[in-house]
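Moderator note: this is an archived Q&A kept for reference. The question asked for a predicted structure of one protein chain; the sequence and the answer are reproduced below.
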Amino acid sequence: MFTDAHLSRMEEIMRDVCTDFETDLAEFNGETNHVHLLVNFPPKVALSKLVNSLKGVSSRRMRQEFPELAAHYYRATKLWSGSYFAGSVGGAPITVLRQYIKQQNRPV
């Protein structure tokens, strides 16, 4: 359901949210039904609060700007499901992580 235009706008929105949380969205990419984020954040930031804000703000703004997405909402009213995956990558080089995110399929 996400097109390149949707994902481009979503990246802008999520970068703004990360800035508000004093975190760094190092890499973003997405597929037709989900996104991949590489975020650098300090220990003072609660991951659950960051994710909740990323999902809530992006859902609200995308609903306003792209009403056609409503036909694909999760459970008819939500852009995102309540679940997410987060992994810690303490020793991996940032270049490897960025390459992984960039290699995910992005629709055209």
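Archived answer notes: The first strand starts at residue 24 and ends at 30.
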